[in-house]
Amino acid sequence: MRTTSFITALAFSAGLFWACSGDDDGPVITASDKPVITAPTSGSSYILMEENADQQADRFVWNKANFNVPTQINYSLQADFPGNDFQSPAILGETTATQLAVSVEHLNNTATTLGLTPDEATAIEVRVVASVSDDFDKLISEAINISIVPYSTEAPGPSYLWVPGSYQAAGGYGSDWSPAEAPQLKSSATSASEFEGYVYFAGDAEYKFTAAPEWGNGEYGDGGSGTLLLNDGANLSVSAGYYRIQVDTEALTYDLLDTSWGVIGDATPGGWDADTDMAYNAESKTWTITMDLQAGEIKFRANDSWDLNLGDDGADGSLEEGSANIAIAEAGNYTIVLDLSNPREYNYAVSAN
């Protein structure tokens, strides 16, 4: 009797198991309790800064989803604009844990993916999606609202200084003391405070540097001994000449180098021992010369010295300081033009006549 009862109970238990399993080989998975985000709280805001890119912006935490059977659950942390119903969400991360640390850089990249405007606060929604397989329904949390002020990942554009003064009309730069018509200095690719450019002074003159093509937005005057004063100081003074001007607005210093330019090289009559002088044309704001050249190479030198020389590394018509010689393929009469009027974008042309 005890043996028969045991067999009957075993059969009954087996029947219960297969009833729960259905006709498949595995148990039936039923989505039950959706995840709930517990941190951060809705309304949290983040001002992101590039210098903190590798730091943690926040840790997102949620309660475990329930699919009624022991199984691995995959979580996707998603972000989108409010009202967009997560039709095209950005993915903050994926994990099998119930939390995810998000770095400043990753949160900023998500903001960029969504098209958020740098340096402006924008609201987005964040939710957690739990799944075990594409064959089963997903469990989705209620969304929380957060605000993000992202930073720009684009390289900053160049900055400029303008050089208005009493020399402008005589030098072909518009009206005297007119910042909008004055020549410019341009910042370097590596420093927003280091400026350079070339300016022609037809005679002795006074001038200042301005941070905008108008007065009243930052002017630099004479601080004495090569230094500048911001929004203060007397006019700067200069003798006639063609000057390379360098300014550091952080250190509040400036430097002027009076230059005259020539062509040197084994393609020129003086070889590598002597320059052939060029002439400045105030109308075109270029240095020019027409001369006979041999097949060979040339460079441009200032003041008959190698301290400041210009060549062409890419053979593309643009000039770089201390760079490669410029090839002259065959002998002939050429017109050579050196153009330093566009700050930090110096170029040249060698044309056969």
Automatic annotation (TrEMBL):
Pfam families membership: SusE
One GO CC term on file: outer membrane
InterPro entries: SusE
Domain SusE outer membrane protein: 23-128
Entries under Gene3D superfamilies matching the protein: 2.60.40.3620
Top-level taxon in the UniProt lineage: Bacteria
Signal peptide (UniProt feature, chain positions): 1-19
Molecular function (Gene Ontology), one example: starch binding
Keywords: Signal
Keyword Membrane belongs to the record: no
Protein name per the record: SusE domain-containing protein
Source organism (scientific name): Sinomicrobium weinanense
